[in-house]
Specification:
Length: 282
């Protein structure tokens, strides 16, 4: 069980996008919950930068196929896991640290009738509850910045990947050194406990026996996406205030506005990395 006082858990417990917000959005469109499918749900549950097109690009880069078993690290409400299973036909396991996110993922997956191919575990990415070499592909989207111990995180990702399998993820990266004030504001406002660089991820993956296949710079694309997301979150002002209060909305708005500004200033960027775990000689 994750501690309620954990900053990342608290951040996602009060995130503007929640299971309830998704259900309300479906009802507002006149979609009966007993008629929900992945085709209708994917418009509301892809809470990552770039939505379905970005997920499709990551899946293609990783070479995910129907016969694969995929692990989605920090799977949130399960949108990417459901899309992969529905579109590609693979099995997907999601792992998330926030219990309410885990419960929401299970509930929404059952609603979309995909629980025969998609399952979720509540657990810590730094102590993955899986056997060695359990998955063909390990993936994640914009979540690693929340995790403080990058060497241990990458070692865990590689450990549970089969030899020859892929580790594929997108993440927030810094494009130079971050000053102490900026780091403190990002940790306090966005719970980004450690933001890595592209070079840092390369070193960690190579040190754990992986070969880098691609490292695509997404910074310019994400700058536009994040500006749009800031406006989207602001459009949810009334529902956020009704659920969490004015003070929370204003605090989140300041934190997210600062975060987006760092992209415009080219302090932060985005990357899509695909690495391949080397085959080990017996």
């Amino acid at each position: 069980m994750s501690a309620p006082s954990n900053p990342v858990v608290s951040f996602y417990e009060t995130h503007p996008i929640s299971e309830q917000q998704i259900l309300d959005a479906l009802r507002a469109r006149g979609i009966a919950l007993d008629r929900v499918t992945e085709d209708t749900l994917q418009e509301f549950d892809q809470d990552h930068y770039g939505g379905v097109p970005a997920l499709r690009a990551l899946a293609q880069a990783a070479g995910i196929r129907a016969e694969h078993h995929v692990l989605d690290v920090c799977s949130g409400l399960g949108g990417p896991a459901r899309w992969l299973a529905h579109t590609i036909g693979c099995r997907v396991t999601g792992l998330d640290f926030t219990e309410s996110r885990h419960r929401g993922a299970v509930s929404l997956t059952r609603l979309a009738r995909l629980d025969d191919r998609v399952s979720f575990r509540h657990g810590d990415a730094l102590q993955m509850p899986f056997d060695d070499a359990a998955f063909d592909v390990v993936m994640s989207e914009e979540a690693f910045a929340h995790i403080p111990d990058k060497p241990r995180l990458i070692a865990q990702c590689v450990r549970v990947t089969k030899p020859g399998g892929a580790i594929a993820f997108t993440d927030i990266v810094h494009r130079g050194e971050l000053d102490d004030e900026t780091r403190a504001r990002l940790e306090q406002g966005m719970t980004f406990t450690q933001i890595e660089s592209v070079a840092g991820y390369r070193r960690l993956l190579e040190a754990n026996g992986c070969a880098i296949e691609t490292a695509d710079d997404l910074s310019d694309q994400w700058t536009q996406i994040l500006q749009q997301r800031l406006q989207m979150y602001r459009s949810l002002r009334d529902s956020t205030i009704a659920r969490l209060g004015v003070a929370h909305f204003e605090r989140y708005d300041r934190a997210y506005g600062h975060f987006v500004g760092l992209y415009s200033q080219r302090v932060l960027g985005g990357v899509r990395i695909v690495a391949r775990k080397r085959q080990r000689l017996s």
